[in-house]
Amino acid sequence: MSADLLSADLFPELPKVLAPPPLRKRKAAGAKAAAKTSMTPSPAGTLTSLASSPPPHHLTDPQACASVLDAHPDYRVLRRLPVRLDWGGAPNTARTRVLILDTETTGLDQSKEKIIELAMLRLDVDSSTGVPLGSVQVFDELEDPGRAIPKEVVALTGITDADVQGKRLDEARIAAILEGVDVVIAHNAAFDRPFCEARIPQFRDLAWACSFADIDWKAQGRSSSKLEALALELGWFYDAHRAEVDCHALLAVLCAPLPKAPERNGIATLLAAALRPALRLYATHAPFDAKDLLKARGYRWNAEQKVWTTRLADAVALEAECEWLKTEVYGGRHAVVAIEQSDARAKYSSRGGRMVQRQL
Prior knowledge:
alpha+beta; Nucleotidyltransferase, domain 5; Alpha-Beta Plaits; 3 domains; five-stranded mixed β-sheet; 16 strands; globular
């Protein structure tokens, strides 16, 4: 940040920056006058050149500049996302081992597309608070999908065919990292889990939690559930859409206290969510004219099964939703809905959970 950008008009609380006199005046006054203008008595009585004087500390040190701006009500400073690989912590604390995971793929269709990058952060956390403990183990590798990477994926991720040529994920190393993991956390686990299970079957045996779906970010006062937006809310920016960097961003976001529940962080919330069965409600044979009502309520249309569905947090939410459907969608008429129950070892996978029917 250059000194001439910080004027007294914008920052009245900052000391004024002395600028050299206009060029025309210096020429008109002659060499002697110019010399006098560029020299001033110092406190010690000597002459000091203003042109060679260093600018104030708060104009040259980035952190000092940021602190000045942070203190001003009209400015908000973004900082590069901090990457922390050692958290310390008490050795005798009850621990849960978690895996933060992200993938980059050749596309969205899990039945056809392939992983081109897999990144994981393995760490232990305090089982009650979710606070990380000890060191973070990092895994990040590329894999050749066996065909050209689509241009739009290259533009998004920066990963090219040359980057992945001949590369293959180290399955033995992945197996070692997965050993002892209690919960895998991904931001949109419904996308990442099927890709991971198709490539590494060991992922099928692990419990998963989703930081996108298992935390009600809207209820926490966040305007968006997207990872970049959540990081920006905390004052961080980062180079998104590379798997390892996204993992570090997710870990940082989940370690921060929740806005509306500062006594716990996102990891603790996800550990609790992993213990609860996932519930998905299917509004079977819902009237066509109720589609806008269902969409506004947060239901999603499953084109393959031709039914509106929604995820529910617990049994209390299920009871309330069934009552709403009966009154608002089915108009009190006889109706039967379907409920899918999945534990953390099955939810967010392509494998279905246990289905039951319920009469409204």
